[in-house]
Amino acid sequence: MAEKVLIVDDEKEFLETMAERMRLRGMEVSTATSPTEALKIIEKENFDAIILDLMMPEMDGLTTLSKVKEKKADAQVILLTGHATLEKGIEAMKLGAMDFLEKPIDLKALTDKIKKAQARKMIIVEKRTEEKLKQIMGKKYW
Fold this sequence. Notes:
- This protein is α/β, with parallel strands linked by helices and 142 residues long.
- It has a single domain, classed as Rossmann fold, CATH 3.40.50.
- It has helices at 12-24, 35-44, 61-71, 86-94, 107-139, and strands at 4-8, 28-32, 49-53, 77-81, 99-102.
- It has a five-stranded parallel beta sheet with strand order 2-1-3-4-5, with helices on both faces.
- It is globular.
């Protein structure tokens, strides 16, 4: 099953290059050039991983991460930055980021992170489904 990924970055050339390289690896990739656009897409679709730039003019990646988590608590978000600091990395992890990586990114490393994100999301969905089944079976309406 192809990994479904959303890449959010205001640098259009970087965004298009990353999307093309990930599609060549068999991933289903959507893109957004702004956090506002990304949040609209996230309301309508689910993704295995959301790749989010830390520094964007409209809204920074940490604020966007918080808004993503409000909408989809289980979202697996990987922050990318060319301006990494320990403080930002810690803050990102506290807000629920799956990982915090520096640009330029090694595509193999990012691909591995996306596959881990997909696996984590599948485990969450399975647990949620099991809980629902237990609740249904516990009611004994039949």
